[in-house]
Amino acid sequence: MRRFYAWLAALAVAAGLGLVAPGAASAAPYCGIVWGSLAKSNPALTQAQVVNVRTGQQPCFDRLVIDLNGAVAGYSIRYVPQVLHDGSGLPVELRGNAFLQVTINAPAYNSSGNATYNPADKNELTNVSDYKTFRQVAFAGSFEGYTSLGLGVRARLPFRVFTLAGPGTGSRLVIDVAHMW
Hints:
The chain is mainly beta. It has one helix and nine strands.
């Protein structure tokens, strides 16, 4: 019986020292994502024009890519209660529980006023029906040198914004929205 009590006492001491107790759960960020959901912007202007909008899915986030025919300069991406059309200020109807207003400091038309990006369906720029986070991508207009898109997402989730050079002399504005916090 003494042996039993000796083992029990040793076990209690070990547990008290944390030698046999499970470690504390750490709240590691989802996929290492530490982006946050606050507005991201750069006020610079460019001579480039918007020429395409496309989306893609990644294991930890959904991606929106805006192609320009020159160097990307400025942008403003932020969560808003409602995305508004450029010029008119009328609301853009979007599916989702949260909305990102994506403004590129570049027009979707050239110096002659001809469209460089003219989507067939302004309410559905790409098909995002099977995406984990994206619910809808809509064109909100191009007015006075700025182009806006509305991005409807599942919830207010972390996002990041960055630019990439190419292909050729073009560039890309990339917006990634995480699948979860």
